[in-house]
Amino acid sequence: MINKGLSYIGIFFLYLLSLFPLWFLYLIANVLFVVMYYLAGYRRKVVQDNLLHSFPEKSDAERAEIEKQFFRYLADLIMETIKGISISEEEITRRIKLIDQHLIDDYFNKGRSIIGAVGHYGNWEMGALRFSQITDQPRIIVYKPLSSNVFNDFFIRVRSRFGATMVSMKNTLRKMAEYRRVVSMTILVSDQTPVRHEAQYFTTFLNQPTAVFLGVEKLAKLMDAVVVFCDIRRIKRGYYTCTFVPIADNPRETAEYEITRLHVAYLEKVIRNEPQYWLWSHKRWKFKPEDNT
């Protein structure tokens, strides 16, 4: 009961903080960066190891600069995510510009459902709110539940307040079966780490053998839905674009794992272009293929 009460208090203060304008939250982000990077050393060893294995060709100085830029952005990302708790639809529209919206409209006009793959790159949380505005057709966002039921329920309400339907990962296939005959758009974060016993497929990603969820590919073939990559790029502080990049128009005609390889390869290209905007503090490489033998 004490932990539950503290969670509600934490949510209350997060909501109050979200009411401040972003320029003020960025002042807090400046301080937060100093605390995380210089004082607390938050997950710096994880970040350094990830960068070392991902970019062995870069010098120590180059990797150190990416690390510093990442922590600057992480502080901004935290504040932008808090702002997303109460941000208006008008402000979301202004801050994330959709590129090639006509591509989405064309697919819907042809009666095709869409599976959108997105990585932990740029501001995927604000992106989720923007995706809710794309169409009046059903919009489904697949999420990984938080360990705290209180915070999990809270963020479901936040992420769905512009009309999206939230579906937990474990219920995805069952829920999506209900939409097989309905034109819809489903968003999945494609670079989550599977639980070890559920890791069915490994590919090379950022120079390392990497376990990859097959959800994008499985759903696309189940629903015969086109696959696009939702390429979220930061333009400047607080402003982004999202470009919809076609990955597979006819998923049932693709070879096994082909769709998975394509969206993983595209994400890697994005990361290599501007690596500071990917979530390097995440323990992405928890195990290797030989661990599952």
Question: Would you mind describing this structure in some detail?
Answer:
The chain is 47% helix and 18% strand. α3 crosses α4. The strands form two sheets. A seven-stranded mixed beta sheet has the order 1-9-8-2-5-3-4, with helices on both faces. A two-stranded antiparallel ribbon has the order 6-7. The protein is globular, with a radius of gyration of 19 Å. The protein is α/β, with parallel strands linked by helices. The chain has one domain. GO terms for molecular function: acyltransferase activity. This is Lauroyl acyltransferase. It holds the Pfam family Lip_A_acyltrans. It is found in: Cell inner membrane.
Main β-sheet, spatial strand arrangement: 1-9-8-2-5-3-4
Question: What is the molecular shape?
Answer: globular
Order of helices and strands: HHHHHEHEHEHEHEEEHEEH
**Whole-number radius of gyration?**
19 Å
- Multimeric state: single chain
What is the count of structural domains?
1
- Structural category: alpha/beta
Q: What is the end-to-end distance?
A: 42 Å
The total beta strand count reads 9
**Rounded average pLDDT:** 93
For the sheet with most strands, the description reads: 7 strands, mixed
Proportion of β residues? 15-25%
Low-confidence stretches: none
Number of helical regions = 11
Estimate percent helicity.
40-55%
InterPro entries: LipA_acyltrans (IPR004960)
GO molecular function: acyltransferase activity
Keywords: Acyltransferase, Cell inner membrane, Cell membrane, Membrane, Transferase, Transmembrane, Transmembrane helix
Pfam family, one: Lip_A_acyltrans
